[in-house]
Amino acid sequence: MAKSKTPPPALAALSGRLAQGSTSLAALNSRFNHSFEVALDRVEPDPAQNRQHFDEGELAALSDSLKQVGQLSPILVRPHPARPDHYILVAGERRWRAARLAGWTSMVALRFDGDADTAALVENLQRVDLTPLEEAKGLERLMRQRGLKQQEVASLVGKSTVQVSSLLKILTLPAPVLSDLGSDAGATVPRGTLFEIARAPAEQQPKLWALARDGKLNVRTARQAKDEGDLPSPAPAATGTAPRLPAIGKWTRSLQAVKGTSLSKQEREELLALKAAIEAVLAGK
Predict the structure, then answer these.
(1) pTM (2 decimals)?
(2) What are the DSSP calls for 124-186, one per residue?
(3) Does 124 share its domain with 107?
(4) Could you tell me the residue range of the domain that residue 200 belongs to?
């Protein structure tokens, strides 16, 4: 009978780690936190989370995606201050809700020990599906909460100072324009055109916005209209049934902008969820 060989020390150590249920091959003294499996009933949403409404259709699509391809990125959690062995969500509430909808009892998480508010804001600002107004509001809140300057917040969220400045300029638009921008009517106005409107003299902004909303303004014509002061009249309000999917143009532009680039795990997960939702609509489900 052949004698069993003693494994090399490195392999023996690795085997011991695996036998102890280690979920990561990172060194124990690594600067990276280890992922771990957490029971969903031990995780609670952050009561300070601004987002209170979650679209049921989007959650169902994300749930289907989780069932088909699994969880591609961990949720971020922090220890619950009053309940031992329980956690509060820092980022990933949509994935957590979708996992429960899929009938899962646990999922992969990362413990986050830093500034939870900042982490949640930064994660949201790095999403690909935010509108310019949502980005601007998130940046403004981050600057206000942390006392940051534009250059500092730009570095924190991975944007240029010019991008941050242009986004924040949106918040100076008149209240009626901001209200319109936050509705479906403003979903199809390109970012560049919106930035030009925000840089225009205040007396021109309402009329420029009306033109952009009617599809009669782009970056070039906006600059020309501002310089020459010759603003054509916007088209009268359309009658009849409003388009049921006004955001399709925004989705298409967002997808074209990231085509050929490297996607994060979360972006890939959300695109798969969007794909599942589109296929369900086309199939008449």
Answers:
(1) 0.52
(2) HHT-SS--HHHHHHHHHHHHHHHT--HHHHHHHHT--HHHHHHHHHHTTS-HHHHHHHTSGGG
(3) no
(4) 172-233
